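Lab notebook, bench 4. Still working through the backlog of constructs that have no structural model yet. Next entry is a single chain of 520 residues. Request: give me the structure tokens for it.
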Amino acid sequence: MILPKPQRLDRHEHDGAFRLTGTTSVRSDAASAPAADALRRALRPATGFALPDADGGQAAITLSVAPRALDAEAYELTVTSDHITITGGDPAGVFYGVQSLRQLLPAEVFSATAVERDWTVPAVSVTDGPQLGWRGMMLDAARHFMPKEFILRLIDLLALHKLNVLHLHLTEDQGWRLAIEKYPRLTEVGAWRRETLIGHADRPEDEYTFDGTPHGGFYTQDDIREIVAYAAERFITVIPEIDMPGHMLAAITAYPELGNGLRPPQVWTVWGISEQVLSVDDLALDFCRDVLTEVMSLFPSRLIHCGGDECPKEEWRASPAAQARMRSLGLTDEDALQAWFTGQMATFLSDNGRRFIGWDEVLEGGGPANLPKDIVVMSWRGEEAGVEAARGGLDVVMAPCEYLYFDRYQSEDHDREPLAISGFVPLSKVYDYRPVPAALADEPEAARHVLGAQCQLWTEYVPTPKHAEYMLFPRLCAFAEAVWRNDGNGVDDFADFVTDRLRPHLERLNALGVSHRALD
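Model written out:
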């Protein structure tokens, strides 16, 4: 009925159903006014109903915030034949109650055009709230640029599934996607590659073929302000990622002095990991701080993602400047040099009231003990790094690739699917994932450091928004339920999930025009 499955839902069939009409009115307190506006925006296209304010009269739908009665993001939804009440522990909770109410209506209510029919809501009482605070999705907009309009549509889809974090991966070897006023060549040069590899890169280079078509694009600072504001209205935090010191070839192409000067740079046209990385001299560090300063002016999120993953060390080993830096710091290897770089960026962010979050490679070069305690680790290569970080007192977001990388195939029969990077992450595996690792079951102090979980969509082989939706759905539906109900208590087995909630939910996605994989 409702996806993700609520903590508790009781049906009251003897009470009939509530009928939504053109005279239905809404009353909301100041704190729940954004949720009331969201309800009107969502229902008007299909129903044609304006849902006006009650203006002192008797309201058919009442929204309110009761922080002393409910936890943050929690809500209670009650439907009788003559009234609907949504009470939230905070404004986000009321908003999530609205998302549940939408799902109780016929699927046609998600249509963008008017539908003539009766609009009824079954009599129910729902008590609900998430068990984890970080329920996120990462979109790689760097390998293939995704237009602003798709980002806004994606935000609406995340909100429908009660997810609350959108992580935007904005920089790569293959393209830089964010306008930085102090460094205009980042988008004049770094946002564009001359062509793109066709197919996988795991073959001899003399067998490579390219599409011959330039690819690029970037978000203006006004685009970002619009995206951030749009997300905030839907209780979603947008977290930017500026990947450093690796995955920086597009920036080095724009400003070659940022590199180690060992070979000519160009925005990469192939997939994989470039060995060309940032220098660790003062010029490169100042560049990173300058970029992060502008990023912080655009994104109010407490956390700023600085990547830190997949940084080859060959250039640092060959660079006199990098080796001199290591000697001056008394460092014994290049992993320790990256840990020092991470510390520099983390300190800069902390001094500016923000927190550093990075992929789990930031643990290399000394582990949790060698990192500032306010760093957040995103554990992608498995759960082990997340467990290590949590035990070391660092906050963690779980993002293990074997469960939550949605760029992987959805079927073992690859011939039935569009080209994907590799691997196999079926819907059932996503549904069965539990974000707090079993290894921490008897370690409550460490388990408290697990903030939540995040699914990822990398876009090497995902060139269009329609393809992105196909890779996300319906796996994102399963993820939404897994991360909302972390412990699995009361969650049905996979077959019941598909029958009771996912199949009806796909009708909603169809009404929204969402591209998705058909169920097996």
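Notes after review: The longest strand covers residues 237-244. The radius of gyration is 24 Å. Flag for follow-up if needed.
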